[in-house]
Specification:
Chain C: One of its GO terms (molecular function) is dihydroorotase activity. Chain A has 196 residues and is of the alpha/beta class. Chain A is built from four helices and eight strands. Chain A has a domain of 137 residues: Rossmann fold (3-Layer(aba) Sandwich). Chain C contains twelve helices and 19 strands. The chains are: A alpha/beta (196), B alpha/beta (318), C alpha/beta (434). Chains in contact: A-B, B-C.
Chain lengths: 196, 318, 434
């Protein structure tokens, strides 16, 4: 996105509830089409908003496969706080729980799920965190929004929406579970310089 | 949170945040690889003017599990025992580039002084200062207790719980920190000690004080915390006539423990004088959480180091 | 002093009461009156609105020389005294070597004389080496050229009752007085601060009030029994005030002193573990502060004495229990008394002259000090301006040490002029080299 001299509205809604729903259905099918059945899969959401997204994907997958099992068997959460490389640049981050589905991750395909893919550093931390827990046969990455500006050689396998942004902008993913309503919003803090 | 000097400096929210982080740390410690990269590249100095192998090892394990480098600087065989002052030691550590200093001293206020005298800028963790405070001990005691009384509630306090703390309150930094933290989290605390081992002025503390152990235990507390009788600190002597008389009146005997409600937990900060303040079979018995306290210590100290070091410590930080 | 200049102090308030001129000539007060004519060659100094007092007398100063020159010397300590408005100080005996022989006390008196900033009256030790075991040669010190009249083991208590009795009896023959540092040693083993709510919280070993009060009670009874006079150093508790009040009602010849710091500071100051607040006797509670102020106001407590106790920085930059006890005080004493007593109308300036000059001079038998502001008196004079305020900064103090507990406080009053034996030693807060 090029710099515009016209005033940018503070918040622009990029995706609404229906678009988010469709994006997740598509991702769920992509995951199944990439050759993995539900038995072989573990979906781990990265707190905070990756966790409900992983649960929704798991529900889609179970429904598509016609399997009657609780979502918790397929989806869990993976906290990456302790593996971040930027802890000393921010106020203290409160860690979130990690919950690994009963079968563990050894020998399975783990799909990491996050709301927004930006620099790639969170995913890097997630890969390290995963390594301390077990040895999956493969790790894939699913995100609702890829906003660009990668700082590491990381790409997503499944993307809900590619959204070109400038660095100064913020992408907010709001979910019914955490925020009351589903939406993806592009926001630009008033007067903020285009630096990170 | 810049330092961990005294429980009196903490808000309830800060205390709960540390305990919640400690729960998180505990969770990570059941993984196949327990070492976390969180503090890689930082150096934690254990500055121990007083011998305490247990506490030092606990802090060392905590720092190493978070990938920090650890330098142990103990009084024995160092320049400290050659009369180097706290100030000179602090200036040395500052010049060497320590990122945090864990300090244990026989002098009340040593950690406070280190944090505030302007000799060193780094976060200071009080690992026990004289008879003043031992905040990480209180945090680990509370952490242990909360797991039993409020299981699965990482954000819970100890509201409504009743804890009886027994023994040498006068010389105990553990008692002082625990009275502050337990009451901060909503628990009711009863101190039990022979009168000479209750500090003059303790009546202002937010707790009840009694000289009668059986009366306190008769209230059916949720936990009984036995303090070590610090015989080496008994300056002037005469705090009680004999060990036997103390043990009869204030020791947690097998019979006293048996009369407690089923759910009551027995705690001791260690090291124990078995058969003196606590009967051996009570210390090893089913209601004892004394060994658990030791593992809690590592989790809590990991959490404290995390809160002090894995943060932007600049004054103008967002 | 033959070289003393002629000075006409114009318009000062004598004892803070009546405006008058004061003519100083030949080391004496030559005339007191209104609209005095300046003799030829006289310097006229306008001191309009300032309070004129007899030069202050400190009955309790630690000059540290010999042996503690890193903290203070007779030279630096008496400079500090002059800046504080003092024209005489009594130098405590806990030096190295101890001031327990005629030789040592004469050396100290001589050093004071040659420094020339104020009169130095050595205090003699009661017991040899302050050890509390046997009496020092008190008569030898009394009849030396230092003419010692005050004897004290200050820093330590003469705790043996028999020894105390003998000392009280012995000094009667040469009109001496025992100044007791009242502290029961057994009750204060390892003690770090006043025993109460704050010590309980901080985990510092308590220094009970009773350790002071029990010794004072014993000593007034002993003084009564043997008919001697007794002086109680740095009394610090409400209970001590009660005991002195009781003793005076019984006609016992006891006098008592309080320090400026005990008139202002409490044990709450210890909470930051800053050893500048570590002192012996310890800072007490607010109730004790109120009681000593009341005792000073009603005359139960006779004098204010500084217990000026300088220490090198290294002795204070330490863990509380390893730090030295004591505070500097000479250069802040009158400001503290003004703010705690005069500005609260608990003492008049006339009373200040009594408690900081006349009575300490009488207890110490300083014939040339604390004299009335009238013709014929030695020209030992303080001119004090009570109107300006100053923020305490030990860096500008003349004392060699920095351990003032009042650092950073804004205090009232300023030394306009100190005159010692007719010589101006301080002018507008600054020392005037002789």
């Amino acid at each position: 996105m090029t710099e515009s001299t016209t005033p940018v509205p503070d918040r622009v809604r990029i995706l609404g509830p229906e678009e988010i729903r469709r994006a997740l259905v598509r991702i769920a099918h992509e995951i199944l089409e990439s050759g993995h059945g539900a038995d072989d899969l573990v979906l781990l959401g990265i707190p905070h908003r990756g966790v409900p997204l992983a649960e929704r994907l798991a529900a889609q997958i179970l429904a598509a496969e016609g399997i009657d099992r609780p979502v918790e068997d397929l989806a869990g959460s993976l906290d990456v706080t302790m593996y971040r490389d930027d802890l000393r640049q921010h106020p203290t981050r409160a860690p979130s729980p990690t919950r690994i589905p009963r079968g563990g991750i050894d020998g399975r395909t783990v799909v990491l799920v996050d709301d927004v893919l930006f620099s790639g550093r969170t995913v890097r931390a997630a890969l390290d965190a995963l390594g301390a827990i077990g040895r999956p046969s493969a790790v894939r990455l699913a995100v609702l929004v890829d906003r660009g500006h990668r700082e590491l050689p990381i790409r997503a396998d499944h993307v809900g929406k590619n959204l070109p942004t400038s660095r100064g902008e913020r992408v907010h993913v709001e979910l019914a579970e955490t925020d009351g309503e589903d939406a993806v919003v592009l926001a630009r803090p008033a007067g903020e310089e285009e630096t990170r | 949170m810049k330092h961990m000097i005294s429980i009196a400096d903490l808000s309830r929210e800060e205390a709960i945040a540390v305990l919640a982080t400690a729960e998180h740390m505990a969770q990570t410690q059941s993984r196949s690889i327990r070492k976390l990269p969180t503090l890689v590249g930082t150096t934690v100095v254990n500055l121990f003017f007083e011998d305490s192998t247990r506490t030092r090892i606990s802090f060392e394990a905590a720092a190493k599990r978070l990938s920090a480098d650890v330098i142990n600087f103990s009084a024995k065989g160092s320049s400290v025992s050659k009369g180097e002052s706290l100030k000179d030691t602090a200036l040395t550590l500052q010049a060497m580039g320590a990122d945090a200093v864990v300090v244990r001293s026989g002098s009340s206020g040593a950690a406070h002084l280190l944090a505030h005298a302007g000799w060193i800028d780094q976060p200071i963790v009080n690992a026990g200062d004289g008879a003043h405070e031992h905040p990480t001990q209180a945090l680990l005691d509370t952490f242990t207790l909360r797991r039993h009384l409020r299981p699965g509630e990482p954000e819970a306090g100890l509201d409504g719980a009743h804890v009886v703390i027994v023994g040498d309150v006068l010389h105990s930094r553990v008692a002082r920190s625990n009275v502050l933290l337990l009451t901060l989290l909503g628990a009711r605390v009863t101190l039990v000690a022979p009168p000479a081992l209750v500090p003059v002025g303790a009546s202002a503390w937010p707790c009840e004080i009694t000289y009668d152990l059986d009366e306190a235990l008769g209230q059916g507390p949720d936990a009984v915390m036995m303090l070590r009788v610090q015989r080496e600190r008994m300056v002037g002597g005469g705090f009680f006539p004999t060990a036997g008389e103390y043990s009869r009146r204030y020791g947690l005997s097998t019979a006293r423990a048996a009369a407690l409600p089923e759910h009551t937990r027995v705690m001791h900060p260690g090291p124990m004088n078995r058969g003196f303040e606590i009967a051996g079979d009570v210390a090893d018995g089913p209601r004892s959480v004394i060994v658990e306290q030791v593992s809690s210590g590592v989790f809590v100290r990991m959490a404290v180091l995390y809160h002090l070091l894995a943060t932007d410590s600049r004054e103008d930080a967002r | 002093m033959t070289t003393a200049p002629t000075l006409l102090l114009r318009g000062g308030l004598l004892y803070g009461e009546t405006a008058a001129d004061l003519l100083l000539e030949g080391g004496e007060i030559a005339a007191v009156g209104t609209d005095l004519e300046a003799p030829a060659g006289a310097e006229v100094i306008d001191v309009d609105g300032c309070v004129v007092l007899p030069g202050l007398v400190d009955l309790h100063t630690h000059l540290r020389e010999p042996g503690g020159e890193e903290a203070e010397t007779v030279e630096t300590g008496t400079r500090a005294a002059a800046r504080g408005g003092y024209t005489a100080v009594h130098a405590m005996a806990n030096t190295t070597p101890t001031a327990d022989t005629a030789g040592v006390v004469e050396q100290i008196a001589r050093a004071g004389e040659s420094a020339g900033w104020c009169t130095v009256r050595p205090v003699g030790a009661v017991t040899v080496g302050l050890a509390g075991e046997r009496l020092a040669e008190l008569d030898a010190m009394a009849s030396s050229r230092a003419r010692v009249r005050v004897f004290s083991d200050d820093g330590k208590c003469v705790h043996d009752p028999v020894l105390m009795r003998r000392a009280l009896e012995y000094v009667k023959s040469f009109d001496g007085v025992i100044a007791q540092h009242a502290q029961d040693p057994r009750l204060t083993e390892g003690a770090q601060m006043h025993e109460g709510e704050v010590s309980a919280q901080l985990g510092l070993a308590g220094w009970p009030a009773v350790a002071e009060e029990s010794v004072i009670a014993r000593d007034v009874l002993l003084a009564h029994h043997v008919g001697s006079r007794l002086h109680v150093c740095h009394l610090s508790t409400a209970g001590s005030v009660d005991i002195i009040r009781w003793a005076k009602q019984r006609g016992i010849a006891v006098t008592a002193e309080v320090t400026p710091h005990h008139l202002l500071l409490t044990d709450e100051s210890v909470r930051g573990f800053d050893a500048r607040y570590k002192v012996n006797p310890p800072l007490r509670t607010q109730a004790d502060v109120e009681a000593v102020r009341e005792g000073l106001a009603d005359g139960t407590i006779d004098i204010v004495a500084t217990d000026h106790a300088p220490h090198p920085a290294d002795a204070k930059d330490r863990e509380w229990d390893q730090a030295a006890m004591g505070m500097t005080g000479l250069e802040t004493a009158l400001s503290i008394v003004q703010s705690t007593m005069v500005d609260r109308e608990a003492l008049s300036w006339r009373d200040v002259a009594r408690v900081m000059s006349e009575t300490p001079a009488r207890i110490g038998r300083d014939e040339d000090q604390g004299r009335p502001l009238e013709a014929g008196s030695p020209a030992n004079v303080l001119v004090w301006d009570p109107r300006p305020t100053t923020v305490v900064d030990p860096a500008v103090h003349a004392s060699r040490s920095m351990n003032s507990p009042f650092t950073g406080r804004e205090l009232p009053g300023r030394n306009r002029l100190t005159v010692h034996r007719g010589r101006v030693t301080v002018r507008d807060g600054a020392l005037v080299e002789g």
